[in-house]
Design goal:
It contains 30 helices and seven strands. 30% of the residues are buried. It has a three-stranded mixed sheet with strand order 2-1-3. It has a two-stranded antiparallel sheet with strand order 4-5. It is elongated. The protein has 606 residues and is mainly alpha-helical. Helix 3 packs across helix 4 (85-95), helix 14 runs parallel beside helix 16 (301-313) and helix 15 packs antiparallel against helix 16. The chain has helices spanning 23-29, 31-43, 61-74, 85-95, 106-114, 122-131, 136-141, 144-157, 163-168, 186-191, 194-198, 202-214, 219-236, 250-275, 284-296, 301-313, 320-323, 338-353, 360-369, 371-376, 381-396, 404-411, 423-435, 442-449, 459-466, 473-495, 505-510, 529-534, 540-544, 561-605, and strands at 9-13, 17-21, 51-55, 513-516, 519-522, 547-549, 552-554. The longest helix has 45 residues, at 561-605.
């Protein structure tokens, strides 16, 4: 259709180019121009032959406006292509070219073209998605960004295993579900899209990842991609792990500040996406690297907290080297970041509370019937963290600036069930008391020693504690008596194991029995063994009250070296008796097995 109407309208686009058009023609298609002309005529009468209209911030600039005018002149979408479809749709939205003014207007034409997006190839959709960056507000308003992100996510998700299937399967990654999967290796089949998506801006990349999360894609693969994106984006933005010296140039300072802000935005966006994934999706080694980068870039407190929470959720996978994080020391500060490790432990415990555990009744049954296997079985995450904390405490104990309250707080951070034995914790306490002998008071040393559960000390650790000059002598005798009771109870438990009343020495003591001359009888009122066991942290109650243990009277007098030697000798005798009894039990079991074999063989012969 040729223009036969008078050109009486001048449209100035983005202060760059002027178009002389027909007012009647544009009024047929554009609601915006119609409204603007009404406003102009309402304010003052139009004088002269030409009417001037300014269109600022027009999406796509004069080039796209020229295509929109050609659409009005030709009345068809022949000028629409993949390279300009996004800008044309946004221009139609800007000019309000709806069906109210003309049937089959530009908005409908562009929508019909975008409706075939699912049939386009990967590269075409990727190019269209990238073009949304220049017209982002209108591209969001018209949902082009969301549609492109969903289309890209659908193609990526078709090559990834579902999160549910990958979590329930233990045979490896699921086979990709697209036609070329047979020619791709397993690794490339899951990461072929990394390079293309990593070239997008942080905003566009974030929309694709969110669409993948919503489609229940494999979270471990998404975590790998996010780390890949960060690894390739930060160096392009000028990030270095070592601070470079800059000249005193104001322009350079402005550029450096801007670059630092962009780097920080990229890091915080990636960390936010990682934290929205399923726990343990990101490798813990990479999380410690992220924490160091967050410190260099001075990331926000919420960003650092997210990283710390992700590390804490899989603290059982960490090693001692990961936790040895130093801080810039001052005259009175600790060399290591103890507060950070404390937060790790707190986040770990919070994550453990959110996971269903074995019921206490079931756990007690397992302890009773499978005591030997329980101690030799694979460690649980909680016990792994307990062992890790013991090694960490022993490593930081020599630090002269480590406050007693911090050491005690870290030692008591875990629950009692985290440590099956307190030998490692005893070693850390001993190192700390030795390194700080001249800098802490007796009260502080006593408070630190209270973190130990003396019932969980082995015989060798108890014997070492009895000879340790850094611990009170009353406490040494108290620990030895506990070990003696445990040995006697173990012997009694092995003797009466067939009765089914008790299964171990600890259970035997808890039920309130004492052993004397291989006879088991209920405790007499004068024999308060419960106070002995419960007084592992304060032996005053035990020393103030007389306690009869195996027909021996423990008087409330100060312990002497003779008493300690006597208890040690008795413990050695009890240990030898226990070993002898165990050997006899093994011999009886072997004899019983042989008899059963002969009986079965005889029955077969008969």
């Amino acid at each position: 259709m040729h223009i036969s109407m008078a050109c009486d309208l001048v449209v100035i686009v983005n202060k760059e180019h002027s178009f002389v058009l027909s007012t009647r023609l544009m009024l047929r298609y554009s609601g915006l121009i119609c409204k603007m002309l009404k406003i102009l005529t309402h304010r003052q009468p139009i004088r002269g032959d030409l009417v001037r209209i300014k269109l600022n911030d027009f999406p796509g600039g004069p080039e796209i406006f020229d295509l929109a005018v050609k659409f009005c002149c030709g009345g068809s979408g022949d000028h629409l292509a993949a390279t300009n479809i996004v800008r044309m749709r946004c221009a139609a939205e800007y000019l309000e070219m709806t069906e109210q003014y003309c049937k089959q207007n530009l908005i409908k034409e562009t929508e019909e073209a975008l409706g075939d997006m699912m049939f386009w190839d990967w590269q075409t959709i990727l190019d269209i998605y990238k073009s949304c960056e220049a017209v982002l507000p209108l591209a969001e308003k018209t949902r082009i960004v969301q549609r492109c992100a969903d289309s890209l996510a659908w193609r990526v998700h078709s090559s990834l295993p579902d999160q549910s299937s990958s979590a329930s399967s233990s045979t490896g990654a699921a086979e990709p579900r697209f036609s070329t999967a047979s020619s791709l290796s397993g690794s490339f089949a899951h990461s072929w899209w990394f390079g293309d998506i990593s070239k997008l801006s942080i905003y566009l990349m974030e929309r694709v990842v969110k669409a993948l999360i919503a489609s229940n894609a494999d979270n471990k693969t998404l975590a790998r991609f996010l780390l890949y994106y960060l690894h390739h984006s930060l160096p392009m933005l000028g990030y270095t792990s070592v601070a470079s010296k800059r000249k005193n140039d104001s322009n350079e300072d402005i550029l450096h500040t801007y670059t630092l802000n962009v780097q920080r935005e990229v890091l915080e966006s990636v960390v936010c996406l990682l934290s929205s994934l399923v726990a343990r999706s990101a490798p813990y080694r990479s999380l410690f690297t992220l924490l160091r980068i967050a410190g260099v870039l001075d990331a926000s407190k919420s960003c650092k907290s997210r990283i710390e929470r992700m590390i804490g959720a899989q603290l059982d996978m960490a090693t001692l080297d990961h936790l040895m994080i130093t801080v810039h020391p001052t005259s009175c500060s600790s060399l290591y970041d103890v507060d950070l490790v404390l937060r790790f432990v707190q986040y770990f415990l919070q994550d453990q509370d959110s996971v269903p555990h074995m019921k206490p009744e079931r756990m007690k049954m397992v302890r009773q019937h499978h005591a030997t296997y329980f101690h030799s079985a694979v460690q649980s995450p909680l016990t792994k963290v307990g062992h890790l904390m013991d090694k960490y405490l022993a490593e930081i104990a020599p630090d002269v600036n480590l406050k007693p309250i911090k050491f005690q707080e870290l030692a008591e951070a875990l629950t009692d069930s985290a440590r099956r034995t307190h030998d490692g914790l005893y070693r850390a306490v001993d190192i700390y008391l030795e390194a700080h002998a001249s800098s802490i008071t007796k009260e502080e040393a006593c408070n630190i020693s209270k973190v130990l559960d003396y019932k969980k000390l082995s015989f060798d650790a108890s014997e070492h504690l009895a000879k340790n000059p850094r611990f009170p002598s009353q406490l040494a005798l108290h620990v030895l008596l506990i070990q003696q009771l445990k040995l006697r109870a173990t012997i009694a438990a092995s003797i009466f194991n067939k009765s089914g009343v008790v299964r171990s020495g600890d259970d035997f003591l808890e039920k309130g029995f004492t052993v004397s001359n291989q006879l088991v009888r209920p405790l007499q009122p004068s024999c308060d063994i419960r106070q002995i066991l419960q007084g592992a942290r304060s032996d005053a109650l035990f020393l103030e009250k007389g306690s009869t243990v195996s027909n021996q009277l423990v008087r409330p007098s100060q312990p002497s070296c003779t008493n300690i030697r006597q208890v040690l000798q008795e413990n050695e005798v009890l240990k030898s008796d226990l070993h002898e009894m165990e050997s006899k039990v093994v011999e009886l079991e072997r004899l019983c097995k042989s008899m059963r074999f002969h009986v079965s063989f005889t029955s077969l012969v008969c």
